[in-house]
Write a structure and sequence with these properties.
This protein is mostly helical. The protein has two helices and no strands. Keywords: Membrane, Transmembrane, Transmembrane helix.
Length: 56
Amino acid sequence: MTSNTPKPPAQTIREESKATLFGTALVLVMAGLVLAAGAILSVAAVVLGDTALQLP
């Protein structure tokens, strides 16, 4: 027995607006800055060790 189901309509490709792409890029850059700052602070904490608590 064969099924005679109709094919679903073809989906159109939706283009993203330039504002959406700019917002996405901005969020990714800010996330990268936050990660970089966290990495720098982690390295500084390891390098300084206990001396960080002795600073005036």
